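Colleagues,

For the teaching module next term, I've prepared a clean inverse folding example: a structure given as tokens, and then the sequence designed for it. I'd like students to try predicting residues themselves before seeing the answer, so please don't circulate the second half yet.
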């Protein structure tokens, strides 16, 4: 059995498991995915309103369903991704509204170069540092304690309805 390395939040599920990224960071892997589905090995799937896992083993996840993703293992990504909080001037504070069954507000920081209008939509997934997430249903998959303790999240830009920032590019 592998360790839980990756975490995914959709409108309906919280999924913990292991994605074989070929040694790449999860954000790079998701941005390079050529197919609409990814395989999550040793998956534990929790549904909305459920506390107990309802599925396990090998799962196939549609990329377009992902709201947020995260690498749980400290070995999963490189240190530059984890050092988002130390980049200071290279970051912009933003607030995002994610499209979903319920509106989710995510605030945090993104790279200044990502904040440019044309660059924001360039990648399917962007990294948001120091995330604060509001609007997740109590008792649902989004209320899991892991989601409140992350130092960054990977956001599906196709699920972003609005981005506002405190600094202009």
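(Answer key — instructors only)
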């Amino acid at each position: 059995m592998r360790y839980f390395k990756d975490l995914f939040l959709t409108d309906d599920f919280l999924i913990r498991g292991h994605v074989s990224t070929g040694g790449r960071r999860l954000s790079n892997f998701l941005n390079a995915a050529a197919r609409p589905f990814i395989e999550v090995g040793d998956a534990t799937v929790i549904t909305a309103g459920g506390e107990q896992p309802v599925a396990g083993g090998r799962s196939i996840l549609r990329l377009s369903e992902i709201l947020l993703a995260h690498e749980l293992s400290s070995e999963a990504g490189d240190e530059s991704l984890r050092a988002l909080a130390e980049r200071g001037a290279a970051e912009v504070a933003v607030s995002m509204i994610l499209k979903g069954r319920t509106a989710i507000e995510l605030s945090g920081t993104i790279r200044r170069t990502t904040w440019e209008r044309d660059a924001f939509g360039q990648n399917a997934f962007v990294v948001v540092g120091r995330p604060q997430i509001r609007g997740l249903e109590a008792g649902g998959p989004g209320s899991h304690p892991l989601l409140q303790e992350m130092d960054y999240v990977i956001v599906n830009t196709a699920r972003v309805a609005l981005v506002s920032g405190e600094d202009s590019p």
